[in-house]
Design brief:
The structure is a homodimer. By secondary structure, chain A is α/β, with parallel strands linked by helices. Chain A is built from ten helices and eight strands. Chain A has helices at residues 15-26, 39-46, 77-83, 141-152, 163-192, 202-215, 217-220, 224-227, 230-239, 244-260, and strands at 7-11, 30-35, 53-55, 67-70, 91-94, 112-117, 134-138, 158-160. Chain A has an eight-stranded mixed beta sheet. The longest helix of chain A is centred in the last third of the chain and has 30 residues, at 163-192. The radius of gyration of chain A is 23 Å and the shape is elongated. The model of chain A has no long low-confidence stretch (mean pLDDT 93).
């Protein structure tokens, strides 16, 4: 694939922008402006880079950028779009997993797309982009090519997905990540009541995850419910009798696992 | 700590025995016998080792071993204990996370203990023991010393835990591992219905887990419910309307997370 240098600007200076902007610069692209309502945030990110101008106005008519990234929280996208002025013929994309591409369309814009890196970002924690799936979508085939090329310059895993498929991905991620994290929180609290740290479970959690990804979660399912070990389930529910919330989840999962194993 | 060579025998030739026996030999201990009801299984494991005798009788009166490991499924422990004949003054331990130490006590045995490696084992998949927590318990202080020393010869993470604390650990592990795996299974099925493989979520799952273990699951909680993003929750529940099971879990978790974040 031929390596092209692209001219970009970012609207938003949060976690996603923080990582993407720096990665794009490293990959040889030029970021011209970073917008934040809070100019201090835009400056903080621009300071990490070479030639970027921090701005707090949404008029980009004079910008040299040709691709504009909206990387703000989902509920701020509409407002940003309504206030935005772009150069003629610019491509506008957002980086959200849950918003449809159509949320970018307004009078005068026809070149729209999505550039969604499927990862959770924290400021200050470096991320290896090369294996992060980047899901791209565009209203025009030429822009899809462009976004695939741009994504391919920072990751080996570029996938074309429409807005409906992104919802599928997002729902699956809520189960596999947000809810999984909540279960780890329950485990942490149960252990903490007996002065045991969550770290005791680290090797087991890591191995469980590896096994699930290697042989598939269905084959990897173990535990009292998978064995039909009713005596242990009863003992655990008895143990949880002062934690109604946890007991509800324990009971629900045990029944589902028993039915599906 | 002084390195002693111990003389061991194993009752059971399943996954736990498979890994422990080989690790003990590597660490310089001698395994004298491996028992299985199915002599072929005992032979298969004994073949991996140097001087081990495969047996299918539970009379160990003539054995040179001094520590006997019961590594059979939980519901077979009682039967094994009732049929077992040990040399005088032998130490009998089991490797179960969910059975109390007292399940080993019968007329004539007073030296009992537990040696529980907190990990999930699959035959043929090598395991690095050095960071696996090994939870030990014994009826007599001298035997506790002995088991700590033995555990310390294969792992850096040896913890003294009584039978009640092991139940805490087991319940926490069910939430953090068995239930987590079940959630990954739901994610896999949702994706599969749209011809997407679970591998798309691998970087996100790995990062979620790392973050939970680094900063704690409570701080690491993200997602629509943590943000109070009711519009997305409603869209996801609508998406799940043909999967009542998943919708129940989605709704329950979202409410719990919203209340606790």
């Amino acid at each position: 694939m031929k390596k092209s240098q692209h001219h970009l600007s970012f609207i938003g200076a949060g976690n996603v922008a923080w990582h993407l902007v720096q990665k794009f610069e490293t990959a040889g692209h030029t970021v011209h402006e970073i917008y934040s309502r809070n100019i201090a945030k835009a400056k903080a990110l621009a300071n990490q880079l070479s030639l970027v101008e921090p701005v707090d106005r949404l008029n980009f008519q004079e910008s040299k950028a040709r691709i504009f990234f909206i990387a703000v929280s989902d509920d701020a996208i509409d407002e940003v779009v309504s206030k935005l002025t772009l150069p003629p013929d610019a491509l506008l994309v957002h980086t959200s997993g849950s918003q449809p591409m159509s949320s970018l369309i307004q009078e005068g814009t026809t070149r729209v797309g999505v550039f969604y890196p499927l990862q959770t970002f924290s400021k200050g924690k470096p991320i290896d982009f090369s294996h992060i799936p980047i899901c791209v979508e565009a209203a025009h085939p030429k822009d899809l090519d462009l976004l695939q090329q741009l994504a391919g310059s920072i990751s080996q895993d570029v996938r074309v997905m429409n807005s409906e498929e992104r919802v599928v991905l997002h729902v699956a991620a809520v189960f596999a990540c947000n809810f999984t994290n909540y279960l780890l929180g329950i485990a942490e609290k149960i252990l903490a009541e007996h002065q045991i740290g969550l770290d005791v479970l680290q090797p087991l959690i890591t191995e469980t995850l590896q096994k699930a990804l290697e042989i598939g979660p269905q084959k990897a399912q173990t535990g009292p419910a998978a064995r039909g070990d009713m005596a242990t389930i009863q003992r655990h529910l008895e143990f949880l009798k002062n934690h109604e919330d946890y007991a509800t989840i324990y009971d629900l999962f045990s029944r589902h696992i028993a039915e599906n194993t």
